[in-house]
Amino acid sequence: MIRETVGHLRDLPRYRQILTTLVRYGYQDVVAALRLEGLVRPLERATLGEAVATLDRPRRIRMVCEDLGPTFVKLGQLLSTRRDLLPEEYTDALAALRDDVRPFPSEEAEAILVEEYGRPLSSCFARFDPAPIAAASISQVHRAVLFDDREVALKVRRPGIAKIVAADLDVLKNLAQIAERRVPPLAAYQPMTLVREFERTIKRELDFGVELRTIKRCQAQFDGDPTAHVPFVVEEFSTSRVLAMEFIGGVRVDDLEGLRRMGVDPALVAERGAGILIKQIFQYGFFHADPHPGNLRVLPGGVVVPLDYGMFGWIDQRARERIADMLIALMAQEVDGVLKALDDLDVRGEDVDLGELRRDVGELVQTYCDLSLESIDLSVLLGELVGLTRRHRLRIPSDLVLLIRSLVTIESTGRALDPRFDIAGRLKPKLQRLVIRRFQPSRMLRQAALVATDLQRIATLLPDVLGHSLESIKRGELNVRFDLQGFERLVSQLTRAANTLAVGVVIAGLLVSSSLIYHGGASSLAQVGYGIGVALSLWLIWNMSRRG
């Protein structure tokens, strides 16, 4: 407690700076709702200047982030992806945040490199360019040449940035706790959960060792693929504060004139860029979460090179199949299928009006009922779906948000290259393969083996559990506590589990009795029993694989 209090006192100037900045840009209502007006000095409660007063609130919140420095720029960029939490005008304004800042002195960059390598730069590189070629809020980049003539880009973390981010994270956590307690409407959006997610993201960006491992993982994904190239990394010169990777020339993916001068068809680039992302999402489940034009380069021959491996998303096989279920259910006008897919994807909320949600999903389904998958504007569809979740205060898992953002970004980039480009058409075969893969015999056998193991474990434990429970009842020691949160869902799950167990018991009984009848000489009757048992087993496996 004492340490925490001292920490808050130490951070008091930062609290005051944040609150004063909010007031200066017209967010006095936010500071008042948090009941922290006392931290803002009277002289600092200035009215808006004329230039700022003419701007709308979304653009002013972007300026707040820019004024408060790198941590808040990164936070604004994260919030720009959360259309499930913020209105579109706010996410659009925050998406305009730029990470370009003034470079720090090259002498400091060289000192960091020498400290990390433990030797002079002249013994590491044949040539080192002290002038940075790019600068961002977390790092800046210098060019260098290895003694084997390979050209590399050295990404150097800003001095002191880790301490700045750590201090700001402490402040943000405390403000999030205050917001949850004092502003009830915000509690539904779980500010603390959002701050923890941001903390995880920015700490990964600060550790270049994580980015190095991500690059190596992507190299394995596209090994031997002539349409994509992942930069090599030089592990000898890479640390948690420095990343040495291949310097990539080429042209930006949205530089149409540059592509044509290089003799590359922009439509081909659009197709290949989409192919890279779709392969990462639906084949590996590990995908580039920020594929905007600045992060994609094109080399001669139309080879696409993704850059900046700091922000990646991950979804497992089950989630990929549920996304396929959702899109297919939309096409088949299956409202229950869409709702089930959303629930299976953990898109949930508290105090949700299920009737109203069902009606809104029905309207969304009807909008696309006469369209083929190829003719769907995926970005519009996903935007409407995210808008629906925001209206009903449903929470979307962060990696699913990143996936939606990636698909929308790559589609908009593709259409800038080729107006006829449609990512939904390219998705169709992947969706079909995901659905078919679920019913492969090998997978069904694995599911059956897992079910058999679970049934065996339950059968082994059940007598002991029932015995202990009965003894507790006899002694009057059994305490029962009900938690009615999510009770209907729990009942539904227990009912399904009971039905599955009952069918399993019936199947076992049929097979055992058929075996006894067969040995008794009534082979025809035994064969009928075996047939029914096999049919029920196949149905059970299919039903379980469908639920996941």
Number of helices: 23
Nearest-angstrom radius of gyration? 29 Å
Q: DSSP strand (E) fraction?
A: 5-15%
Regions with pLDDT < 50 over 5+ consecutive residues?
Answer: 1-7
Characterise the protein shown here.
Strands 1, 2, 3, 4 and 5 form a five-stranded antiparallel beta sheet that branches. A three-stranded antiparallel beta sheet has the order 6-8-9, with helices on one face. Helix 5 (57-68) runs antiparallel to helix 6 (70-79) and helix 14 packs parallel to helix 20. The protein is built from 23 helices and ten strands. The chain has helices spanning 2-10, 12-24, 28-34, 50-53, 57-68, 70-79, 88-95, 106-117, 161-182, 184-187, 191-206, 208-221, 256-261, 266-284, 317-331, 335-344, 354-367, 378-391, 398-417, 423-437, 441-474, 487-519, 523-547, and strands at residues 127-128, 134-135, 139-145, 151-157, 242-246, 251-252, 286-288, 296-299, 303-306, 312-314. The chain is α+β, with helices and mostly antiparallel strands and 548 residues long. The two termini are 46 Å apart. 61% of the residues lie in helices and 7% in strands.
What key attributes describe this structure?
548 residues, 61% helix, 7% strand, alpha+beta, three-stranded antiparallel beta sheet, disordered N terminus
